[in-house]
């Protein structure tokens, strides 16, 4: 159920199998499985959803999947969670979007909650790296497969190949902010398409758009100014509702001002700070981690120097978006400043407030904007812009795959400057700043066990064509044997 087959033979005649929309219960099971297996950061998570929803279940067409992904890439916050919410909304409305988005982050949140508690109590969580070691190496092979398949479908001409290559170089060599890369690609696609339309050289569609079970459901999608304002207002109230709890925990005088400023209430500071972060986190967690670490350590003293890296290591080895590391920060802040309650309860509250402030806005962006994005699927200029974004995303995912691969296979990775420029500092001093740099591993730090698991995963995927669940299971067992028993 829920899969559109290639065809069945009936009395010697091939009959096309009719695609059947999944039930809400079936979709919920699939979203739960995706949430539990969403390792590898945005590249691995997008690859996982593509393989499950487009290739295995065939619930959504390639074109529809990429259209949704392009919109999510333009939004602040975790794009993979927003993509899950978008597809869930397409299939089952608001309840489908809520279930898909919540199940995408809930497993990782529960894991990071337990790990943060263990870290706060014992300052030790190295056993997790052993548990998820094999999965990370397997996800690397899945990400490579996604880059290859996405590239074949998304790069439809010389222009798209150039955009993908330039996007990759902009990120890999020049470390240009991710939003600028995506916006530049969108403008390039729009400008070139407009020129082609005016000159009469705009190419016709290469094929009839592929249908999917979402088209077969033919569920009306309402959009309009009054609906959009209502959705934004509703979700803004939901987003900021924890302020009432924060006020209740604070002193009676000037409670609202103090809660919002966080001057006397650590939970007010957590919620206020991460609410601001939620609207500026373009490009994923790495775009704001250094700033969050600086504020958490130097301004609020929630963390000690170096503890942000420990949290990042925990988040990288758990399922779900990498920005779950913010929940680790919230947990330690609440654990160490519990306002008279049990430290573990304070940590749980701090982590929950950080998660609420970070992830609730994603539902607001999808439920308010997705109906407009769906209505504009046939617009030629918008389609050209989004196709250019898709090409840039291929370069982005390739860059993420290389970064992820280097850190999985090597214990030490440095960034070597290839081109520098001189900047002036106070006191008539100067410093050399990199204009162009490249990530380069220390070859002596190669993790042989990780390499073996990765080769095994690649063989299972590319040669034996096994499904993702079996690949992850085999690699998890292999990782436990190699790393847990110290065989290599």
Give a brief description.
This protein is mostly helical and 488 residues long.
Description of the structure:
There is one protein chain. The chain is mainly alpha-helical. Helices cover 67% and strands 7% of the residues. It has helices at 24-37, 41-56, 62-73, 79-122, 126-154, 158-172, 178-199, 213-217, 225-240, 242-248, 255-261, 266-278, 289-299, 307-316, 325-336, 343-375, 380-409, 448-463, 468-484; strands at residues 8-10, 13-15, 413-425, 429-441. The strands form 2 sheets. It has a two-stranded antiparallel sheet. The protein has a two-stranded antiparallel ribbon with strand order 3-4. α2 crosses α5 (126-154). It starts with 7 loop residues before the first strand and ends with a helix.
Radius of gyration: 24 Å
* Total DSSP helices: 19
Largest sheet: 2 strands, antiparallel
Considering DSSP H and I runs of 4 or more, what fraction of the residues is helical?
A: 55-70%
Average pLDDT figure: 80
Parts with pLDDT < 50 across at least 5 consecutive residues: 1-18, 251-263
Helix and strand sequence: EEHHHHHHHHHHHHHHHHHEEHH
Q: What class do helices, strands and sheet pairing give?
A: mainly alpha
List how many beta strands DSSP finds.
Answer: 4
User: Ends: how far apart?
Assistant: 44 Å
User: How much strand?
Assistant: 5-15%
**Order of the strands making up the biggest sheet:** 1-2
The coarse overall form would be: globular
């Amino acid at each position: 159920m829920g899969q559109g087959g290639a065809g069945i033979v009936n009395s010697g005649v091939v009959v096309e199998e009719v695609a059947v929309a999944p039930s809400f219960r079936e979709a919920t099971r699939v979203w739960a499985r995706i949430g539990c297996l969403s390792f590898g950061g945005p590249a691995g998570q997008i690859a996982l959803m593509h393989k499950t929803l487009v290739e295995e279940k065939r619930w959504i067409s390639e074109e529809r999947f990429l259209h949704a992904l392009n919109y999510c890439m333009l939004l602040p916050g975790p794009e993979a969670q927003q993509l899950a919410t978008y597809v869930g909304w397409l299939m089952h409305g608001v309840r489908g979007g809520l279930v898909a988005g919540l199940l995408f982050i809930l497993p990782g949140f529960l894991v990071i909650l337990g790990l943060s508690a263990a870290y706060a109590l014992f300052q030790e969580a190295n056993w997790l790296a052993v548990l998820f070691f094999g999965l990370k190496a397997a996800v690397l092979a899945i990400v490579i497969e996604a880059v290859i398949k996405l590239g074949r479908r998304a790069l439809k001409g010389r222009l798209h190949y150039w955009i993908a290559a330039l996007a990759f170089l902009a990120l890999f060599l020049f470390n240009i902010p991710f939003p600028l890369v995506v916006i530049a690609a969108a403008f390039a696609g729009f400008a070139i398409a407009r020129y082609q339309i005016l000159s009469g050289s705009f190419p016709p569609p290469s094929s009839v758009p592929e249908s999917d079970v979402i088209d077969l459901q033919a569920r009306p999608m309402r959009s309009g100014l009054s609906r959009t304002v209502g959705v934004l207002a509703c979700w803004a109230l939901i987003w900021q509702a924890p302020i009432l709890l924060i006020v209740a925990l604070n002193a009676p005088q000037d409670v609202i001002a103090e809660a919002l400023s966080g001057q006397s209430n650590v939970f007010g500071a957590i919620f206020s700070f991460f609410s601001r972060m939620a609207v500026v986190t373009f490009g994923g967690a790495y775009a704001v981690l250094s700033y969050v670490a600086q504020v958490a350590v130097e301004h609020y003293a929630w963390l000690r120097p170096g503890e942000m890296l420990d949290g990042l290591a925990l988040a990288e080895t758990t399922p779900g978006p990498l920005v779950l590391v913010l929940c680790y920060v919230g947990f330690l802040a609440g654990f160490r400043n519990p306002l008279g309650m049990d430290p573990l309860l304070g940590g749980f509250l701090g982590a929950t407030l950080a998660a609420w402030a970070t992830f609730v806005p994603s539902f607001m962006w999808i439920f308010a904007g997705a109906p407009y994005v769906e209505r504009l699927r046939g617009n030629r200029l918008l389609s050209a812009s989004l196709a250019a974004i898709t090409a840039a995303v291929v370069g982005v995912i390739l860059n993420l795959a290389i970064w992820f691969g280097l850190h999985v296979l090597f214990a030490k990775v440095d960034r070597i400057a290839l081109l520098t420029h001189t900047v002036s500092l106070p006191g008539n001093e100067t410093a050399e700043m990199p204009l162009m740099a490249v990530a380069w591993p220390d070859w002596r730090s190669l993790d042989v066990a990780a390499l073996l698991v990765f080769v095994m995963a690649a063989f299972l995927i590319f040669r034996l064509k096994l499904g993702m669940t079996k690949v992850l299971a085999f690699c998890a067992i292999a990782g436990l044997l190699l790393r847990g028993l110290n065989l290599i």
